From TrEMBL:
It catalyses: ATP + protein L-histidine = ADP + protein N-phospho-L-histidine. It is found in: Cell membrane. Coiled coil: none annotated. Keywords: Kinase, Membrane, Phosphoprotein, Transferase, Transmembrane, Transmembrane helix, Two-component regulatory system. Residues 212-265 form the HAMP domain. This is histidine kinase.
Length: 511
């Protein structure tokens, strides 16, 4: 028997070990990240807690220590001040420049000074706190200051030194070193790190053994899927009808293979739409931002004549309004995507359509508009459960679209009726219309039939996307149709319609 070539013999073990390594590495990385995060959070909280303890000690004891020291100095016992206070943890600095500029400051250094150094430049600490008017640092909250040793820091509290009449004689600094806290937190981090390494190593061995044992059951599926991976999607994974994990996996793979081509195609389309959305959004914001920036820079450099300033400001306001409108549209689409609840109530589509035509006559008095029934001149009273403000917005968006994309004087019709239990509103225009390919995409975000992206005629490309989103939230639909004789018709379908016509039909059936 011919021995296997060096290329085929190690193939399966190497691939199996690689998959095992990937799974183990993924799990270990996740566990490691969790442990690192836990360790970081633990040490951070511990450090904050210890600093808060130091702050509490400074607030609780700082006043009494400073007051006692001041009384000792005023009583003439300042000769023994160092001996009395040097065995405490406090570094104390008293400055009397406010009452007596020639007075020498008093500095009390604790016994730990040789190890932790002392705060650097105390006069600057006092000057910064007083000159800046930072009342949070005077008599109230401790803060961190640097030490003469660049690697050390202290926690300091600045206090007023006053006489019995509350006159400020000077200022005192009471401080404690942060080095013991850093040392304790460092030891905690070291211990936690060693335990974490031991845990990760033990977990790696345990997970590796478990994953390796579990993957042995998948060898048959691996051999079958190699042919599928080569491109033959008609292949299916052989399996027995066993209700175990391997049988379930084989069934799932076979179901997946039946849909994989469609899934890949849909994924590519979705990614393409997302890229286009991001590109168009940035494009829409870039131009008005560039305009505003250009005008402001021109004005700052004195390049705008006095008589042109109103025009310049008008252009800035216009572009800002354009950006504001675009952002509002994007926010509304985001809210619709979040699935926020609608304010549902009984809405008469006939009344909403009639009100919308009144609004249209105010916006475009020269436009011929009328309200008709869906299939006749009679307009039925159609009632649906919907959000009236959203329905009004949908029709307003569509009518605005008609005004933007059809010549002046183009007649507009709103048709109301029912169809198979759905309440219908059709917005019909008799303009140039759109192609069949465009009708399939006009409800996409940022899509414009104007390929030149002219804002004068193409708009932002979000109006019809908002229409589609609102109709989807109502569990209805929006469709683009061709108007008989030429033009565009947008049909809005609302579920659960009730109308006079439906009531008459129901009464006829009962009779």
């Amino acid at each position: 028997m011919q021995a296997p070539t060096p290329f085929t013999r190690p193939r399966r073990p190497r691939r199996q070990r690689t998959l095992t390594a990937q799974l183990v590495l993924t799990i270990v990385i996740i566990v490691g990240i969790a442990i690192v995060f836990l360790g970081f959070a633990t040490t951070t909280l511990m450090r904050q807690y210890m600093i808060q303890s130091v702050d509490a000690d400074l607030r609780n004891s700082g006043y009494s220590v400073a007051d006692r020291l001041l009384k000792d100095i005023q009583s003439g016992e300042h000769i023994n001040v160092d001996n009395r206070y040097s065995f405490s943890n406090y570094w104390i600095y008293l400055s009397f420049e406010t009452a007596n500029p020639s007075a020498e400051p008093v500095e009390i250094r604790p016994y730990t000074t040789s190890r932790y150094s002392v705060p650097a430049d105390p006069e600057k600490i006092i000057a910064d706190s007083v000159a800046g008017g930072d009342q949070a640092k005077i008599n109230r909250e401790p803060f961190t200051v640097a030490a003469t040793n660049a690697r050390q820091h202290w926690r300091a509290l600045v206090l007023d030194v006053t006489d019995p009449s509350s006159n400020v004689l000077g200022y005192a600094i009471i401080a404690q070193p942060l080095a013991p806290i850093s040392f304790t937190v460092g030891r905690l981090a070291l211990i936690f790190g060693l335990l974490s390494i031991a845990t990760v190593l033990a977990g790696t061995l345990a997970v590796g053994a478990t994953v390796s044992r579990s993957l042995r059951s998948l060898r048959d599926i691996e051999r079958s899927t190699q042919a599928i991976a080569a491109g033959d999607l008609s292949k299916r994974v052989p399996h027995d009808d066993h209700a175990d994990e391997v049988g379930s996996l084989a069934t799932s793979i076979n179901v997946m293979l039946a849909q994989i081509e469609h899934a890949f195609a849909e994924k590519e389309r979705s990614e393409g739409r997302m890229r286009q959305f991001a590109s168009d959004a940035s494009h829409e914001l870039r131009t008005p931002l560039a305009t505003v920036k250009g005008y402001t820079e021109l004005y700052r450099m004195g390049g705008v004549p006095e008589e042109k300033i109103p025009d310049c400001m008008g252009r800035i306001e216009s572009e800002a309004s354009r950006m504001s409108g675009l952002v509002e549209d994007l926010l509304q689409l985001a809210r619709m995507d979040e699935g926020r609840p609608l304010q549902l109530e009984e809405v008469s589509l006939s009344d909403v359509a009639e009100d919308s035509l009144y609004d249209l006559s105010a916006r475009a008095p020269g436009r011929s508009s009328r309200l008709v029934g869906l299939n006749s001149e009679h307009v039925p009273n159609v009632v649906v459960t919907a959000d009236q403000d959203k329905v009004t917005q949908v029709i307003a968006n569509l009518l605005g679209n008609v005004l933007s994309h059809t010549p002046e004087g183009t007649p507009v019709e709103l048709a109301v009726g029912t169809d198979n239990g759905y309440g219908i509103i059709e917005v019909r225009d008799h303009g140039p219309g759109i192609t069949a390919a465009e009708s399939e995409r006009i409800f996409e975000r940022f899509y414009r039939t104007d390929v030149s992206r002219s804002r004068a005629s193409g708009g932002s490309g979000l109006g019809l996307a908002i229409v589609a989103a609102i109709m989807a939230a109502h569990r209805g639909s929006a469709r683009a149709l061709e108007t008989p004789g030429g033009g565009l018709t947008v049909r809005l379908s609302f579920p659960g319609a009730r109308s006079d016509e439906i009531a008459r039909r129901a009464a006829g059936l009962e009779d």
